[in-house]
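Predict the 3D structure for this chain.
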Amino acid sequence: MIKMEEGFIVSNKIRKAIFLEVASGEKSLSRIMRKHHLIEHAARNAIEELEEHGLIEKKEDGYELTEDGIKIFNKLRELESL
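Done. Predicted structure below.
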């Protein structure tokens, strides 16, 4: 399942940008949207998809990776270092 989730993330530049920002500690979707010049509707769709796949979750203070999201982030880092 992890392999499929990796493809799900990297196949869409908006999902990938949001996932990597949340992985780096950014919790605010509005700051992510400003930084990457994203249209709100597209960013909200992408973050909802990431939530539906169990990769990120909304907490009181913003978004963060789930346990599965952390595993996939680590796997993506491994693959990029090859």
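Helices lie at 2-10, 13-23, 29-36, 40-52, 67-80.
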